[in-house]
Amino acid sequence: MSMGVPEIEDAKLLFIFGYNGADAHPIVARRIVKAKQKGAKLIVTDPRITESARIADMHLQLKGGSNMALINAIGNVIIAEGLADKKFVEDHTSGYEEYKAIVEKYTPEYAEPICHVSPDLIREAARAYAKAETSMILYGMGVCQFAQAVDVVKGLASLALLTGNFGGPNMGIGPVRGQNNVQGACDMGALPNCYSGYQSVTDDAVREKFEKAWGVPLSNKVGIPLTHVPHRVLEEKDEAKKIHAYYIFGEDPAQSDPDLAEIRETLDKIDFVIMQDIFMNKTGLHADVILPSTSWGEHDGIYSCCDRGFQRIRKAIEPKGDVKTDWEIISLISTAMGYPMNYKNTQEIWDEMRSLTPSFYGATYEKIEALGSIQWPCRDESMEDKGTPYLHKGGKFAHPDGRGKFFASEWRPPCEVESSEYPYSLSTVREVGHYSVRTMTGNCRALANLEDEPGWIQMSPADCEKLNVKEGDLIRVYSRRGSLITRVMPTERVKAGATYMTYQWWIGACNELTTPYLDPISNTPESKYCAINLEKIDDQASAEQFVKDSYESIRTNMGIDTAKKGV
Ligand SMILES: Nc1nc2c(c(=O)[nH]1)N[C@H]1C(S)=C(S)[C@@H](COP(=O)(O)OP(=O)(O)OC[C@H]3O[C@@H](n4cnc5c(=O)[nH]c(N)nc54)[C@H](O)[C@@H]3O)O[C@H]1N2
Ligand SMILES: Nc1nc2c(c(=O)[nH]1)N[C@H]1C(S)=C(S)[C@@H](COP(=O)(O)OP(=O)(O)OC[C@H]3O[C@@H](n4cnc5c(=O)[nH]c(N)nc54)[C@H](O)[C@@H]3O)O[C@H]1N2
Ligand SMILES: [Mo]
């Protein structure tokens, strides 16, 4: 994020793009409501009527999979109507002419048949975004989970460049990232291509610094992204590139990755799987070794918020049973493999990391404790350096020439679209009551009592009528990759032909249906679009029995006491 989460409240305009705060981040959603109460204009771009869309001044209810065309059209209007911040563009950016050449074609009239948004509304949104004193973009998985995702992120950043919405408070662009510490995992270098602080593994000077500190030779090759693992197990012919062992922790690919049939085959064919988790999950059913670890209330550490803010977390209770913290398990494995790690606590690990990471060096435990949160970059240990609430101050960017780079791309349709055989689109999203692979919320009996298997498919009332199904009916959903049973939820919030499921259900597991197509740069799968068909089930009683039996059988396999409600 170029700005901080608290700044959301003071922006004059919020442009919310493929992000549903009310279900995904209720605390951030409160800030959106507060911004509105303080007079901010709200523009929401989402194919569904989300809660933010319901209270928005403008809702661009685009057709799923058309983000790039819409963003290009907004850039087109800003340029055509002379609304760009010419001084900012001249002084602080590069690539404007190339950008202009691409968006020229994307008039609102050209975009309309792709996006299904009226040219008037596109113009109105572009004018409001460009004219507001400070405009802030918030985006989420409705941008990132497409095979054309990185292009769209850059396209959104280009709108901020075009209108000078960088370098000051209450403006900018923010991916409102998912998990409490997904930003932290990336900050610490849990990525295939970098060390902590985004220092590249292919940079010789960086590699030599880490080699010296750790006293071992290190590879200069980029590693393997999570979503390439199935290919490297199932199809790789080159023995040197084939994967034989898979150490998985804090992740349940057998539920959260696309095309689960392929994932199961991968986990079964691979020689050795280690699973390290706080609960049993579907991946654990394929594991050779299970390492139980402590949960967030049972250990110390630091999380990074999506706005680059480091925050300390503290152990609240003593762990029970035969468990260890994740860092102790990693240290023990490393020691057993011949590289001793003798850390006594998380502060020692943090201090070592800081000493090798200039942009985080100033964020000491003591300072984070005193200030509550420190947003990187924070380079100096002294109390004067309180971190960086917003980036690009004075219009300075990280490119070698100090300028922000414009980017536009032609729109590409999703990889799998509707056909006569699979006439509906499926997008997979979130609901407020359950979390990701549902190990955590499913183990909370109160939440399981509110909502349990097999989950729902959101459909337009017109589609329900066409299929002659009503709320709560079990229905069969199938794609080219798999099939499942879920419940019908008719809702006016979605358009005809487009359906939505949440991805936490074990029986109604939508990743049986999703496609493994990836964005070529981020390697994120296209979870937001695939083609499906729906089939009414006549014998509802046996379908209900099937759901009950399969849920019980999964829980029995996982060693869960099925007499209790919840997982
Ligand atoms: N309760 C709960 N909270 C969670 C999670 C959870 O599982 N449960 N998961 C956490 C995680 S890991 C993450 S990453 C965040 C994600 O939080 P969000 O980013 O809000 O994620 P989604 O709900 O998947 O998708 C956001 C919106 O994208 C829209 N969308 C779909 N297709 C398109 C499109 O083509 N264009 C546009 N503009 N929008 C589109 C969907 O309708 C949806 O409303 O939530 C986090 N918070
Ligand atoms: N169809 C579809 N699929 C999706 C998405 C979508 O929108 N649609 N969203 C994707 C996104 S954005 C994300 S982030 C992923 C999330 O998917 P995952 O990362 O697989 O799911 P989580 O539920 O966040 O947690 C994974 C595991 O971590 C364990 N865990 C929790 N705390 C700890 C801990 O302290 N230590 C250890 N070792 N384990 C712990 C949990 O019990 C759980 O088994 O799903 C992705 N999959
Ligand atoms: Mo996420």
Automatic annotation (TrEMBL):
Residues 425-531 form the Molybdopterin dinucleotide-binding domain. It is an enzyme of class 1 (oxidoreductase). GO terms for biological process: respiratory electron transport chain. Its EC number is 1.2.1.2. One of its GO terms (cellular component) is membrane. GO terms for molecular function: iron-sulfur cluster binding; metal ion binding; molybdopterin cofactor binding; NADH dehydrogenase activity. Residues 7-334 form the Molybdopterin oxidoreductase domain. Keywords: Iron, Iron-sulfur, Metal-binding, Oxidoreductase. The keyword Kinase does not apply. The keyword Repeat does not apply. It holds the Pfam family Molydop_binding. This is Formate dehydrogenase. It comes from Acetobacterium bakii.
